[in-house]
Amino acid sequence: MKEKILLIQTAFLGDLILTTPLFRAVKKKFPDSSLTVIVNKGTESVLEANPWIDEILPLDKKSVKSSLLRFWRFASDLRKRNFTVCLSPHFSFRSSLLAWSSGAPIRIGYRTAGFSFLLTEKKSRPILGPHEVDKLLSLLYSEEESKAIDRRPELYWKEESVSGIRNVLKSWKLEKGGYILMTPSSVWETKRMPAEKFREVGIALSEKTGMPVVLAGGKGDLDLCEEVGKGFALNLAGKTSLPEMSYLTAGAALLVTNDSSPIHFASAFDIPTLAVFGATVPDFGYTPLATRSFISEIEGLYCRPCGIHGGKVCPEKHFRCMLEQDPNRIVREALRLISR
Ligand code: SF4
Question: What are the annotated GO cellular component locations (predicted)?
């Protein structure tokens, strides 16, 4: 029988990118299946042209959180589609509720998810240790089977979606492999290395490599990127769509970033990645999967990690995990990554 598979992943952008190996694995396990993916509205374009997905359903989380009626409308539309299997890697009780509402007789998710009693197969999910991609693959595959599966995320774009960024790069004479990409922001404040340190790193890398630096981020990161790059870098914060971010990352010689979603864009294109970790730790499983990478972190700091995502302010008030980051060391390691 042709399986009709529903996958619910309404987490952050980075989590969605890290779910792309699972999309591929689903189609490998069920070659004739159809795959429908529910994503957080606003992130769907990062999956455009993905060859493994048959249908994307964006879910406006704010809207369904504020109206039970809208939630049930969305849920009852799902039921009409006759899904046979539902994979629910997201933890929220709403995801479990959607999985159950879909009517799929097989509903696979994590034991620790909210309302997990609505799932028919519950997998364990260690907080520390395995990479997030492996945790996601564990929904379908045993640890042994997962070893044979390609863990690299994959991102695509439609040509018409990247004509803008193509023109920008052309007008700045930036060629593939000829610029350094820096993304100094993060959704969480304690995951951000201070702007002056990013600036120091950017200026040094630009001088030592002769390569221009491009800054990227969301609309809200415009001022931060201006502070980091004033006078030496091209600031594209708020000017790239998600497919354009894929295109921009794919052309970089190096990414310098915090522990945030650009790591996973870079992993998709095997771009050397220098990632600065503050309040979070690599053991949470969100590390770069690029062949060449380095994580800058203050090892042995008693208060790390202080939250699964990092928080808005340092609970210990000293913010040593970021204030003690050494720009000279970051530059040294970054140069090592691109000179290999
Ligand atoms: S408590 Fe420690 S790990 Fe958390 S933000 Fe402060 S310095 Fe960083």
Answer: cytosol
